[in-house]
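Researcher: Next entry in the queue.
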Amino acid sequence: MKKTPPTPRRLPLATNAVLHELEDSLLREMEAASNDGSEQRMEAAIAVACDRIDEVMTQLTALEPPQRPIACGARCPWCCHVKVNLSAPEALRIADHVRAHKTATEQAEILARIVATDAETRGRTTLERAAAPRPCPLLEDDNCSVHPVRPFACRGANSFDATVCKRAVTERAPQMVPAYAPQLRVASIARGAITFGGAAGGIDARPLELVAAMRIALERPNARERWSGGMPVFSQAIDEEAHRQILQMLKHPRR
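Model: Structure for this entry, 255 residues:
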C-alpha cells in the first residue's frame, strides 16, 4: 500500500511575519547594492545577509521549535551529493575563502576535484544528478571545507532523519526528506533576493551550478574583475533548469 505524504503544516502567523520581514529587508538591501552599481557592495550585502539569516533562525526556532531534533551534524555529507545553485557573488566569496585558508597544494587538490566532478556533472539536471550522485568536491573528510561561507542553498538544507538522506544517495532515488520548513524558507528567500535584487540594478546574479561556477572562480584569477566589468565570465555555469524555475516564480509572485 502506497503511503500518502503528510500534509505540510501551515507556518504560524508570527513565523510568517518574520519571514516576510526578512524577505523585504534582504530584497531592499540587494536592490540598493545593485543600484549602486558596485558588485563589491553586492558581495558585502551577501555577507551581511548571512549574519541576518543566523539571527532570524534564532528567532524562528524560539517562535516555532522543530518538531524533532535536526539530524544534521559533522561528517554527515549526504545532502552534499545533490546539485547546488549559487550566485556569482557567492562563488567569488567561496573562492576568496579557499585562497585565504588553503595552501597552494590544498588549492590545487580542490581544483583537481572540481575539474573531475565538472567533467561528470556539467549540464545534468537535478534528477540526473540524483540518479548518479557525486560528492561535492569541496568536501574534505566528509565535512564542508568552506562551511563559514557555504552557499545559501546549503545553509537551508536540513533533515530530521539522516537515514532518509543516506537512502537518497545509496539508492540513487529522490526521497521525501522530513525537514524544518522555516530553515528551508529562509534560504529560499535569500536566494531570491540575490537574483531579483541583482536584476533590478542590472547585475547578473542568475543561478549558477556550484561545481562549474567554482571551476571558473578558481581557474580564472581575474574572474571578479571580469564579472564586475559586466563580462559574462560565468555564462558557462548558468543553471538553465534553475533559471527556468525562477522565471516561473516571476510569473506567479508571492501575494
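Model: Residues 14-251 form one domain.
Researcher: Noted, moving on.
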